[in-house]
Design brief:
GHL10; disordered N terminus; TIM Barrel; Divisome_Glycosyl_Hydrolase; alpha/beta; about 375 residues; signal; GH; 10 helices; eight-stranded parallel β-sheet
Length: about 375
């Protein structure tokens, strides 16, 4: 998880990780070895995705060269980050616009035969105007501190409360603004969760913390809205009446259900009104972020199986692909998310094969910006065999 400093190294992708990346430079195949263009007959049996973080100022021709390489390497769909919790990369009248990048890339993707999915941050909101005018919209930790003023780990972890009706409406409107764009294929939900009550093991040293249990400063959401709803249901105020809230299964499930309710009853229906697909970047350690995504009614699931964050080997990707599929109520495709900075080209091929062995319909790479020429060739080769 990158919290601006660390996140800048780890990259971003919804694991609690964020950072700005530079887009990969146009790749020119080497004269030795097979080039991407020489690897033909890519399999129609799998579907592969890549997350794409923005880079301002590139021309349409520059983007077309990049996306042509992506397509030739076995990628079928891109997930462009169009809303980062503060400003947007598409035209709208609700939030600050950084660049109209969506409008530039959609026709290119259509021409190349790439699906285009609009990737949005869901629960974090770092817009200064909203923070100032609506502090009650924000999640609260077990110490009674608001994420608006005391965000966990890093400053951009200003998560909204999943129970606040106005916060729910704000997020719904964000989905609506994207879903009503005619030529996109879908809306991709990121950060659709609460802050990590326990970080992945390999990330904890970056913050000089040891999380051997759930500590209140990282445990959300104890907003008045969540507490009132839980008390109405159970007669218990989790902040005042529970000696150890982390031990109460009802309170834990309530927060899982709060996120699930937002997804299934607010966000998915909004996208479906416009006939858009809905996908989400999700965690393998879903309990730690109150993200019971096996109960969500999505068109596809993209678990971020960044094995190095958990001090695991590549086989862990197969194992957690299987586990993710097993917990799904709706038997829809799972595409295993792979973290490129932790994989050599050969390891990328091994991770790809591990994902398919676990039952994945393909992979999703984080992120296009970090893929080397050698990685693209390796992906094209393994994708052609699948």
């Amino acid at each position: 998880m990158k919290k601006r400093e660390f996140l800048k190294t780890l990259g971003k992708g919804s694991l609690a990780i964020v950072s700005s990346h530079t887009l990969l430079q146009a790749c020119i195949p080497k004269e030795t070895g097979s080039t991407v263009s020489e690897v033909k007959n890519l399999s129609p049996n799998t579907k592969n995705w890549t997350w794409v973080t923005p880079e301002k100022g590139l021309s349409a021709d520059q983007w077309k060269r990049k996306l042509s390489l992506v397509k030739d390497s076995g990628i079928d769909a891109i997930l462009l980050e169009v809303y980062n919790g503060n400003h947007t990369y598409y035209d709208n009248n609700r939030l600050p616009v950084e660049e109209k990048l969506l409008e530039k890339l959609v026709p290119i993707c259509k021409e190349l035969g790439l699906e285009f999915h609009a990737w949005m941050w869901t629960m974090p909101c770092n817009n200064e105007k909203i923070v100032k005018e609506h502090p009650d919209w924000y999640a609260v930790n077990g110490l009674g501190q608001s994420a608006a003023t005391h965000p966990a780990y890093v400053d951009y972890y200003k998560f909204l409360c999943p129970c606040h009706p106005e916060a729910q409406e704000f997020v719904r409107q964000n989905v609506e603004a994207l879903a009503q764009i005619n030529d996109i294929d879908g809306v991709h939900l990121d950060y659709v969760r609460l802050p990590d009550v326990i970080l992945a093991e390999a990330l904890q040293p970056k913050y000089d913390i040891i999380q051997d249990r759930e500590y209140p400063q990282y445990d959300y959401c104890y907003s008045q809205y969540c507490r009132d709803q839980f008390k109405k249901k159970t007669g218990i105020d989790p902040l005042k009446d529970l000696k150890d809230p982390s031990a109460n299964q009802e309170w834990r499930q309530f927060r899982y259900d709060a996120i699930t309710n937002l997804v299934n009853n607010k966000l998915v229906p909004e996208a479906k009104k416009y006939n858009k697909k809905v996908t989400a970047a999700v965690f393998p350690n879903w309990e730690s972020v109150r993200q019971q995504w096996g109960n969500w009614h999505l068109d596809a699931y993209l678990p971020m199986l960044y094995h190095n964050f958990y001090n695991e080997d590549i086989n862990w990707i197969r194992e957690h692909t299987e586990k993710g599929i097993a917990r799904l109520q709706d038997k829809k495709p799972v595409y295993s998310g792979l973290y490129i900075p932790s994989l050599s080209p050969k390891e990328l091929q091994q991770a790809y094969e591990a994902a398919l062995q676990g039952g994945a319909g393909g992979i999703s790479i984080f992120s296009m910006n970090q893929v080397s020429e050698e990685h693209w060739r390796a992906l094209a080769e393994v994708a052609a065999k699948s």
